[in-house]
Backbone:
């Protein structure tokens, strides 16, 4: 972003707010518009129930698509701070939306995709067709999948970093398989920021943040 995050985000949200009155009018005129939005929210909440299937092959751990999306979105926010010239709103919302189709098609892991294909474009088209902001959602997902813009490249790395973070967590508590997966996921990273974050993750321990607070506070009391 060309200005600081607060100003730029405020400007972008200001534009969204300016458009909201027109959107409200459209919803009222459509009659069923609000119902479509509520359906969208229920569909989004379904991601809490969809498991990430890769963990079945890993042999340990578990995570829903919603949990993965949350972690990816937090990482995207951090990346927008490390690269303040990017469009933070686009980057964060792209990560929020990137796996939305899995509410309809489920989560296919790398092995499954060799034999099974899902029509993600059709799923997104159907899910967003009646939404007043549907074109925004569909556009973000299309940009993410294309992986060409700077925001899309960072978003795709955030997606990988969320898995790297969890593999490191599982490895730190004694599970061996995540150690053999890590090198392959690290190879997928394409941005300098993503690689820098990954190096910091693998050189840290999952409980460093807790021990620093707990041990330091205990020592200070002595």
Residues:
């Amino acid at each position: 972003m060309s200005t600081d995050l607060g100003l730029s985000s405020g400007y972008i949200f200001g534009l969204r707010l300016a458009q909201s009155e027109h959107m409200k009018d459209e919803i009222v005129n459509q009659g069923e518009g609000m119902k479509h939005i509520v359906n969208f929210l229920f569909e989004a909440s379904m991601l809490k129930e969809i498991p990430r299937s890769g963990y079945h092959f890993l042999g340990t751990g578990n995570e829903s698509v919603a949990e993965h999306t949350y972690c990816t979105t937090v990482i995207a926010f951090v990346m927008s701070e490390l690269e303040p010239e990017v469009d933070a709103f686009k980057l964060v919302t792209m990560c929020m939306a990137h796996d939305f189709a899995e509410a309809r098609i489920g989560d296919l892991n790398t092995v499954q995709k060799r034999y099974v294909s899902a029509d993600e474009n059709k799923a997104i088209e159907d899910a967003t067709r009646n939404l007043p902001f549907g074109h925004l959602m569909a556009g973000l997902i299309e940009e993410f999948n294309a992986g060409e813009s700077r925001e899309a490249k960072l978003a795709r790395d955030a997606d990988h970093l969320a898995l790297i973070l969890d593999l490191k967590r599982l490895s730190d508590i004694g599970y061996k398989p995540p150690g053999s997966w890590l090198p392959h996921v690290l190879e997928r990273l394409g941005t300098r920021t993503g690689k820098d974050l990954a190096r910091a993750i693998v050189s840290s321990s999952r409980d460093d943040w807790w021990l620093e607070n707990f041990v330091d506070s205990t020592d200070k009391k002595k």
Notes: Residues 1-7 have pLDDT under 50 and may be disordered. The radius of gyration is 20 Å.
